[in-house]
Amino acid sequence: MYRKFLLLLSSCSFLCILAFSANAQTRTLSGTVTDITDGAPLPGVNITDNGKSSTATTNAKGIYSITIPSGTKSITFSFIGYSSKTVTVTADNTINLKLSPASNNLDEVVVVSVGYGTLDKREISSAITHISAKDLLPVAANNPLMSLQGKVPGLNITNTANADPNSSPNIQLRGVSSRNAGLGPLYVINGVPGGNIDNINQNDIESIDVLKGGAASAIYGTRGSNGVIIITTKKGSSQSRMFYDGYASFDYLTNQLENLSADEFITNRVQNKQGQDYKARTNWLDEVTNSPAFAQKHTLQFSGGSAKTNYFASGDYRDADGIDLRAHKREYGGRLTINHVTDNNLFVASITAAPRMMKTDNADQGNFNNALTLNPTYPIFNDAGKYSYINTGFFSNNPVENANLIKSQGEIKELDLNGSLKMNILPKLSTTVTISEIYRSFKKLDFSPSTLSSIVQANKVTQTNFAKQELQENDQKNIEWTGNYALDLGRNHLKVLGGYSYSLYNYKQVSAQNYDFPFDTYLWNNLGSGLYNGGAAGQGQSAVGSTQNGSTLISFFGRLNYDFNNRYILTASLRREGSSKFGANNKWGNFPAVSAAWRLSEEPFIKEKLPWVNELKIRADYGITGNQDFDNYKSLLLYGGAGYFPYNGQYYQVYGPSSNVNPDLSWEKSVNFNAGLDFSILNSRISGSLDYYIRTNKDLLGSYNVPVPPNTQSTTFANVGTMKNYGVELALSGDVVKGDDFSYSINLAFAYNRNKFISFSNEIYQGGNFQEVAGLPAPGSPGNIQRIQEGHSIGEFYTLRSAGVNDAGALLVYKKDGSIVQANLASNDDKQFVGNGLPKFITSLGNTFRYKRFDLGIFFRGTFGYKIFNTSAFYIGTPSSQSDANVLKSAYNSSSKYSLLKSTATTSIASDYFLENGSFLKIDNVSLGYRQPLKTKYLNSLRIYAAGRNLHTFTSFTGGDPDLVQVNGLTPGVNTSLNYYPSTLQLILGLQVTF
């Protein structure tokens, strides 16, 4: 099918060439672009015609020359950090222009990506947030979206291990939306859906558009339920330019948990017969910490060409250490984009290749918690100079030994390829074909040597050293064919989009492991030399494994944009999409959307009576989106191992059904409504937007009990549940001071979100009315501490309600009848809803100061109105914690309520005694820069900057940095793992040079 489609496409393109080949008349414009504040020439300003078929860039002296088609009505000048300007083309071939620093208002010509195209911001009728490159935060992070943290109302970006160079953030838009399918948004990179988000260098980003409204994201059908993030990278220009950006960063521990020193341990634990003194004095936290953790990154960009052919090339190198002893990452990446326009402007071709290679040493996320709980009187090394064998405490191992001897590495290769051919059939009619491939491979390498103290002490002769290799490959191939038509009839403006999309996904995995190698020096490179890889005495079939699976997604889509007199705007779209993941009865689905907007500021009664209103637009949108982010083959009858069968004295592996077929399995459906307001007042000194949304997620996926027979298995994966999110979002920006030498502007983002789980059942599948979640691990049997229940919100804590502590140091709780008993005398039936871990408000405030060539940015970020279960206090924050384990200082601090819990009778019993207010406000990012234009033969400009991240946190939470506790997903406000990776303060020193 794929080859036939390409053959058909080639034939159609050839016929179009024969039918429409014609030479277009052109003319050349030239001029100089300068800074309005000091008259300095601006190099690197981009100039495009209104048809976006011609581009040019100013040289070092601010001079440009652009060849445009005859009949071009306007050209646009844009430059990072400056307001864009569109100028009408007259008979004069010389256009000189002055640009002013950007003010982030609606009067700018802001081009917004809306999915399969762009629109002027004034034409938008759905909820879309546009962020340009200059508005991104300066960060030294593994993922470029960390620079977006706090910038977009409703988009919550969290990373519970920021100082781990291999960590990735968790990203969620407008609340949790599913129980068993993906919760993250769809990434569209340069128009290609599903790109590698880690394969983006922040310096290459031109803009980010976040599609929040259902009408905007419905154009992506079954992948748009959790919103869409569109990333546009920089393009080439006709002017040669070279740019360098480099920084060094340093991460220091901050707001960390503090445990007892050796002397404090002896006083409080040993003397109370809760520990032993092994005579050493070891600060285990210091011993496993690499502080400051150093990182460096260097980016070099080139662009140039002619008005018809231009290129953009970028290369980057990053080397980063983690705050722990083992974590490390080294990566090399590049991006090359070439654009070409034929002389007659009939064809516009573009090709992009973006390879990236990463080598990682993976952090041991449990090593810091190991160090927190280890007896501080135990030595790192024994008398023989070997690592001490440790078999007491929570984890019974030596964390320094683990960090230095156990290896866990990764090799990651990513490649994004896409090429497009656009044909301008008529001045207002074009068609574009885009072919792309997104590839990612991940090789995981693990090794533990035979010299580990635990192996030596046990005198093991089998299962000594261990090695494993695992390779995972993800490949996505896409082809998309779109057509665009625009029609202007007086005051009526019409834009039509139609398209076809085909995506083929494939996943492969293979793994092999073994023990007992003759030499530790082999690591994972000679698995066959091990002696424990098969047979009855070894691992048998578990020594190797492999799998492959895939899916196909086919779509037809269309969109209509209409506006009357630039005043009344209507947008409607429909996507019809089919997926091989769905059941036989539900292969195809329809995803309609409609939105409308009214620009009141264009009405005479506003213009005449309220002249201080520059822009006022009200809008509303409705759209249906889907979620097909779940495993392949869930609708099919699968076969798996079903035991062994004896035949002629020998046992044979037999296979049988391992899942139930479900021909009705379908996508999760999201019904979205959004009403909003965009405004700009007082000569655009104040601007912003306000949105109210309701999103109802229906047909949520889950496993439900079914009778056997007629089914072969006791559960079936089906579409059943319903959930709702609603909220308010506000974005506000203002120019407080706007002068030639000094300016001060602010940007505010605010989001309020509430969630309600409506139902677990439908007319076919009946489930219970609640689900227990957030199970806490051993030691002890704390059980689950949250419950998802019909009529309640995600994140509801469901535990015993505390009634204080008695004189014996035992926890007291309320029973359901209101009586008070010791916690170990209560039952699960006495549990109650005691709080919620889902934040009500998330906000940020950005302040930008400019004085001549200096710029200062101060960014605050806060999360409010939720509870956090203090996991560290629960396990190691009380005097009754496990014997011979170290504890937090709060366990013996008389001002801490946790110091009262002295009785072991109620240890490991969860209650709201350990719930704390999670609200916090951070001085999240402060940056200071200085820019110096240079009129030399070799340099155009130079900028030096310094930035600090996570400088201070204002909070009453006592369990460290509350930002390290995940608030996205199904169990917000609780860390259900004992792993702990400390928070850090990051300092960045950087240099930017334009050649």
From TrEMBL:
Q: Cellular component GO terms, alphabetically?
A: cell outer membrane
Kindly state which keywords UniProt assigns to this record, in alphabetical order. Cell outer membrane, Membrane, Receptor, Signal, TonB box, Transmembrane, Transmembrane beta strand, Transport
Tell me where the signal peptide lies: 1-24
User: Where this protein primarily resides, as one coarse class?
Assistant: membrane
**Entry keyword Lipoprotein:** no
Per its record, what are the GO molecular function terms? siderophore uptake transmembrane transporter activity
Ribonucleoprotein as UniProt keyword: no
Q: Name one Pfam family in it.
A: CarbopepD_reg_2
Q: Which intervals hold domain TonB-dependent receptor-like beta-barrel?
A: 366-951
Q: What is the protein name given in its UniProt record?
A: SusC/RagA family TonB-linked outer membrane protein
Q: Which organism is it from?
A: Pedobacter miscanthi
